[in-house]
Amino acid sequence: MTGWLPARLIERTDQTPTGRTLRLEVAEWPGHLPGQHVDVRLTAPDGYHAVRSYSLAAPADGRLLELGVQSTPGGEVSPYLADALPLGALVEVKGPLGGWFVWRPEERRPALLVGGGCGVVPLMAMIRARRRAGADVPCALVYSARGEEDVWYREELRSGEDGVPVRVVHTRHAPAGVARPAGRVTADDLAGLLPPDGTRCYVCGPTGFVEHVTALLVRGGHPPDRIRAERFG
């Protein structure tokens, strides 16, 4: 982990009505592993600092970082980063942070990824790293989102180019033509993708979601010591 480094915003992309991808250029970035995150620090003219943590959405790529930022109504930092920080402006980042919730390209254990809302961001870094490495280790994603418009990386996940089965669970509003009714993740949503024996699970999302999914996985036969969780909120 490094100290605070200057990071320049070079691109902002809409993912959902309130979710953004930010691409930052960090000249002295040391690299990172899929699943890690960074702290972002903003400094006001009077010297006041505000620091928040954001997941990295892509594997290491030289001096470029890709973050997922979900704008929170009334938030002190996320609305500014999501919609107001000008292109070319500088912020500070510290990282990479986290060594438990990571996936390595040399990993041979199957990976079941379960994300809630913007909790899919670090899981996307794992999927992209697997693609870049040309890895053939089995991998599947279960993604819980309120409705179709709340799905991050919609086109990329829909393409199926990675050989990663994707199940999208809509919790509030199911699109027309989708057989599964809206509702929270169930045991059936997690079943049949990868066998519990030998599979490592990565679960990321709000605290309530992570606790619910973790309990379902354990009841489904996944050993607790093979479940890695990252929670927020």
Overall description:
Keywords: 2Fe-2S, Iron, Iron-sulfur, Metal-binding. This protein has 233 residues and is an alpha/beta fold. It has two domains: 5-97, Elongation Factor Tu (Ef-tu), domain 3, CATH 2.40.30; 111-232, Nucleotide-binding domain of ferredoxin-NADP reductase (FNR) module (Rossmann fold), CATH 3.40.50.80. It contains five helices and eleven strands. It has helices at residues 78-84, 120-133, 154-159, 187-190, 207-219, and strands at residues 5-14, 19-25, 37-43, 49-55, 64-70, 90-97, 111-116, 139-145, 166-170, 200-206, 227-232. A six-stranded antiparallel β-sheet has the order 4-3-6-1-2-5. A five-stranded parallel β-sheet has the order 9-8-7-10-11, with helices on both faces. The two termini are 24 Å apart. The mean pLDDT is 94.
Main beta-sheet annotation: 6 strands, antiparallel
Classified by CATH, the class of the largest domain is Alpha Beta
* Integer-rounded radius of gyration: 18 Å
The domain count comes to 2
What percent of the residues sit in helical stretches (DSSP H or I)?
10-25%
CATH superfamily of the largest domain: Nucleotide-binding domain of ferredoxin-NADP reductase (FNR) module
Order of helices and strands: EEEEEHEEHEHEHEHE
Oligomer: single chain
